[in-house]
Design goal:
By secondary structure, this protein is of the alpha/beta class. The strands form 3 sheets. Strands 7-6-8-12-13-14 form a 6-stranded mixed β-sheet, with helices on both faces. α6 packs parallel to α10 and α10 packs across α11. The model has no long low-confidence stretch (mean pLDDT 89).
Length: 363
């Protein structure tokens, strides 16, 4: 047998897949017509099964309800109440029972990874909570990341171990596309990123007329760290045509995954709907953030719905403040913690739906 080909065309062994939980538990959440269940994957013992007291039809209703709300989130107190109502239902029926079991295996404040499938992939599991006085919501207990599969998380960790090159950083900002609404705060956002990153890494920016499809692709190929500030355009019917809006047209998922990128590490997708996938098959993970991960980016931050152009600048600034530690180095493995701390700092300053819009994917 050739080296590394012992499992060629065979299903992966669980003894290999459990390594996904090396740095913290991975929680698989699934719905089907038979039952809804969670499975906590641990690195050193058997998986723990948690039956969930919710039906697939109810999960689908929650998903549809949440999708309709976040389309115009923040415009009324009633919408905020309905968002909180869904987050409470998620807590009572799904996340709360998981937390009760999770407490036995990991300490509060630890990192965990969500691996949702089916209708659960469209819901903000990371934000569930009772949202009541003197109670703790999930973000108060654990630091969440997501992964589309166990194997994707394992691959991302293996890439980190192999790469010792000096990274370079590019910020691509497109606030004035030929088509679509202007984004007034993109230039200030990129400036804020530049001020924080320039003392640490070689920094390049592509702005407005320079931010074309081809130049963006060239930049993705040459830089290991990427910050994209532009419109995100999901295509729920043809997910491979989902795109970032550049000056001369769309930079699509197909464009991104075609070239072989050189040791990419981290991407912050400061754009709308970058984790929105194929509507009829939500667990297939064909969306803009997944495209970046499948292209080799080990750590990605994306959005589950629309982001506020003004608010996102505050999140971005707080995030990079937390990414740069006392050693003046950037490490993509700190992205989840940096995002968690940024949102905690801004919790009383920005609307709830903007506090929970960004999610971390990967290591």
């Amino acid at each position: 047998i050739l080296p590394d080909f012992s499992q060629f065309l065979l299903p992966p062994l669980f003894s290999d897949l459990r390594h996904a939980a090396k740095d913290g538990p991975v929680i698989i959440v699934n719905s089907s017509r038979y039952s809804c269940d969670a499975m906590i994957i641990l690195s050193a013992q058997d998986p723990v099964h948690i039956p969930l007291d919710i039906a697939q039809a109810d999960v689908l209703e929650l998903s549809k309800g949440f999708k309709s709300l976040i389309g115009n989130a923040g415009s009324s107190d009633n919408q905020l109440y309905e968002i909180v109502s869904i987050l409470r239902t998620l807590w009572e029926s799904v996340v709360g029972p998981i937390v009760e079991t999770l407490r036995h295996f990991t300490q509060p404040g630890s990192r965990i990874w969500w691996c949702p499938s089916a209708e659960f992939a469209l819901l903000p599991l990371h934000a569930a909570g009772p949202y009541a006085k003197n109670s703790h919501n999930f973000p108060d207990l654990y630091i969440s990341s997501y992964t589309p599969t166990l194997a994707a998380l394992i691959r991302a960790r293996q890439q980190i171990a192999k790469d010792a090159s000096t990274p370079q950083f590019v910020a691509i900002g497109q606030g004035n596309p030929d088509e679509g609404k202007a984004l007034r705060h993109v230039a200030a956002e990129v400036d804020n990123v530049a001020r924080r990153v320039t003392p640490i890494l070689p920094f390049t920016s592509l702005m407005d007329s320079d931010a074309t499809v081809q130049r963006a692709l060239d930049a993705l190929n040459r830089h290991q760290w990427v910050h994209l500030a532009c419109h995100g355009m999901p295509n729920r019917e043809k997910p491979f045509e989902s795109s970032f809006t550049m000056r001369d047209g769309p930079l699509t998922i197909t464009d991104i995954i075609r070239p072989r990128l050189q040791t990419p590490e981290f991407a912050f997708l400061s754009a709308c709907h970058t984790t929105v996938g194929y509507e009829s098959s939500p667990d297939e993970s064909i969306h803009l953030a997944a495209a970046m991960q499948f292209s080799g980016f080990r750590s990605v931050i994306g959005s589950m719905w629309s982001v506020d152009d003004e608010v996102v600048g505050q999140i971005v600034s707080a995030f990079y403040d937390n990414m740069i530690d006392g050693s003046c180095k950037l490490d993509c493995r700190r992205a989840a913690v940096a995002l968690h701390k940024a949102i905690k700092k801004l919790r009383k300053k920005i609307p709830l739906e903007q506090q929970i819009v960004f999610v971390h994917i990967g290591v």
